[in-house]
């Protein structure tokens, strides 16, 4: 079993236990359940924003412990003040050290799109994402059948959530893309081997259907990487470790985005 298969096997078990402890009807009573979502797509395309989806990630299977004691409040507010377009919050506990409350905390302190980053394999998790205050969910093509991608994406839309479909190669893109996908993410990290290569995004850029927002994910380390990805049509940039490995991730994001502004000769709006 590779790590991705291990994560998904564990996730299925976790979700079936949760369904008993905390049934869907309770999720639907959450204070966030009936609130309007903020569009991730729109914020990424805003000219006055950097396009960066800044991620909160405490640890990962590939990098081990990154920043276990991060302050969600300070980091999420700081990321947005630095000029990020949106937040990504890892809620998986076992492998990434996150929790649902991390997203709820980020939600309380920010009016901005929040991507719930988890391994979604069941409808329950989509209702849960809405209940904790997410605006968008991630679907990973490598762990779902095309039929599952479609039905999960359709459910997400019915709850007002946008869908970021993550692919790693052309076969996944062709197989899993459907009319319910709002954003297409190309993960530069191979989740089976952990190898990172920005060329994964570049080589797939032309294959992404028109009108879908293109997001490059993982391994983005310097403002020049964003310039290169932009020149290949990418509009969104998901960045985790580059910021999180600093004791103050929001400061790291601020200086990164300042450098990017100099390159782009624009002043990205402070949220
Ligand atoms: O820390 P990085 O290399 O900047 O990567 C961020 C993000 O792309 C990565 O965390 C990620 C992309 N897809 C995922 C799926 C699950 C968990 C995590 C991820």
What does this structure look like?
This protein has one domain: Aldolase class I (TIM Barrel), CATH 3.20.20.70. Helices cover 42% and strands 16% of the residues. It has 12 helices and 10 strands. Strands 1-4-5-6-7-8-9-10 form an 8-stranded parallel barrel, surrounded by 5 helices. Strands 2-3 form a two-stranded antiparallel sheet. α4 crosses α5 and α4 (72-82) packs parallel to α12. The relative contact order is 0.17. The mean pLDDT is 96. Indole-3-glycerol phosphate (IGP) binds at residues 55, 57, 117, 166, 187, 217-220, 238-242. It comes from Fulvivirga sediminis. One of its GO terms (biological process) is L-tryptophan biosynthetic process. Residues 4-254 form the Indole-3-glycerol phosphate synthase domain. Keywords: Amino-acid biosynthesis, Aromatic amino acid biosynthesis, Decarboxylase, Lyase, Tryptophan biosynthesis.
Give descriptors for this structure.
single chain, 271 residues, alpha/beta, TIM Barrel, 8-stranded parallel beta barrel, two-stranded antiparallel sheet, 10 strands, 42% helix, globular, binds indole-3-glycerol phosphate
């Amino acid at each position: 079993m590779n790590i991705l298969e291990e994560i998904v096997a564990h996730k299925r078990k976790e979700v079936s236990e949760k369904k008993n402890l905390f049934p869907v009807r309770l999720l639907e009573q959450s204070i966030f359940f009936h609130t309007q979502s903020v569009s991730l797509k729109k914020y990424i395309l805003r000219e006055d924003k950097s396009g960066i989806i800044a991620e909160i990630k405490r640890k990962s299977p590939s990098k081990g412990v990154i920043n276990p004691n991060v302050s969600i409040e300070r980091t999420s507010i700081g990321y947005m003040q630095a000029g990020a377009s949106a937040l990504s919050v890892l809620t998986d506990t076992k492998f990434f050290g996150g929790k649902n409350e991390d997203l709820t905390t980020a939600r309380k302190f920010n009016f901005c799109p929040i991507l719930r980053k988890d391994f979604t394999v069941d409808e329950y998790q989509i209702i849960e994402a809405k209940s904790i205050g997410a605006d968008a969910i991630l679907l990973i093509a490598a762990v779902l059948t095309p039929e599952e991608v479609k039905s999960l994406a359709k459910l997400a839309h019915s709850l007002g959530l946008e869908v970021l479909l993550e692919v790693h190669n052309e076969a996944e893109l062709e197989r899993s893309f459907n009319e319910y996908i709002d954003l297409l993410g190309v993960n530069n990290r191979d989740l089976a081997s952990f190898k990172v290569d920005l060329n994964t995004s570049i080589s797939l850029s032309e294959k992404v259907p028109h009108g879908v927002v293109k997001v490059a994910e993982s391994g983005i380390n310097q403002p020049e990487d964003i310039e290169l990805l932009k020149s290949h049509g990418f509009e969104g940039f998901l960045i985790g470790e580059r910021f999180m490995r600093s004791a103050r991730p929001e400061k790291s994001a601020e200086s990164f985005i300042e450098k990017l502004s100099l390159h782009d000769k624009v002043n990205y709006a402070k949220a």
